[in-house]
Amino acid sequence: MKKVLVLGCTGSIGTSALDIIKNMPHDFCACGLVAHTSREKAAALAKAYGCPYALTSEDGECIEKLLRQTQADIALNGIAGSAGLLPSKAVLEAGVDLALANKETVVMAWHLIEELAKKTGAKIIPVDSEHSAIFQLINKIGKEHIAEILITASGGPFREHTKEQLASVTAGDALNHPTWSMGKKITIDSATLANKGLEVIEACRLFDVAPEKVKVVVHPQSIVHSLVRTKDGMLYAQLSDPDMRHPIFSALSFPAMSENYLQPFDLCGTTLTFCKPRTDDFPLLAYAYEAAERGEGCTIAYNAADEVAALAFLDGKIRFTGIAKIVRRVLDNDWTVLPQTFDDVFTIDKNARAIAEQLI
């Protein structure tokens, strides 16, 4: 039985993980839970799952405490945004395998995180549905045979909107995602394609491929979670229903491939469509490729500016199209310095946020 430490236990990733633990009690147990500030919810979940340890981020160094107390086999990081970086660091420093749903860990500090994992021997297993699919396909096919990676995107709620229509959409419109149920910030990022941009950066780093070898294809049904093209030109895809329990289960059970309680995907009666992303109307995807080319300081700035601008849109301070404008102007600054420490990462993050706030 694997002991699972769930970071972000009240969010969509955490609740999906707990559903797996509840339905597969002979395979997994929750040894520790961390919520952001919802102490009552964390305590209720701990009681429901027979978990002896439940803390919030307000407890201070709570992750380090839990790692020492629980002797976890694997930690699932479902914390949203840049707040998830230091928890990932703490997990890897403890030599515990990391099931990673927090893409900012990779976008902001990959070379430091990768170095830490190599030092302690801990594995990093991606949980994003796209990166989970790529991870599984590469493990089955062999990285030496892969020519390029194709990441699928739902296109969000505005994939058929004109440029003129995009200027007047509301936060309520943007939060109405057609296929996934997620937190507010990632749902806004899905609407702008910033989330797909972050996933491009993440794929380049997780799988050590150049940006030009990572393509994005819009697939509204969210059934094909990503594809790889082998050197002979063939495409291989992973398909399942749009349910985050599938990639979470894959990460928690890795390297085993076990039977589970989840409903298998039925191909019959399903229509799958694909098209190219409209980067002229959704420029944040193009800006992510630019940031990936320019390096880690620039990807930190991209993420920071997007977080600030997305929140400003949710608060009604800027228009939907203003998010990309803010990110563009932040990226126009010099971000060429490669951070040497995690403190350096947060200094760059802080500076980028300050510029974005001034622009707003």
Descriptive terms for the model:
alpha/beta, 47% helix, six-stranded parallel sheet, 10 strands, 15 helices
Quick gist of this model?
It is built from 15 helices and 10 strands. By secondary structure, the chain is of the alpha/beta class. A hairpin with a 4-residue loop joins strand 9 and strand 10 (235-239).
> Got a strand count?
10
Strand content: 5-15%
User: Which percent range fits the helix content?
Assistant: 40-55%
Q: How many distinct helices?
A: 15
Shape: globular
The biggest sheet, with number of strands, parallel, antiparallel or mixed sense and barrel status, is: 6 strands, parallel
Cα-to-Cα separation, first versus last residue: 50 Å
> How much is the average pLDDT?
94
Assembly of the depicted chains: single chain
Round the Cα radius of gyration to an integer and report it.
20 Å
What structural class should be given to the helix and strand makeup? alpha/beta
Strand order within the widest beta sheet: 3-2-1-4-5-6
Uncertain runs: none
Topology order in helix (H) and strand (E) letters: EHEHEHEHEHEHEHHHHEEEHHHHH
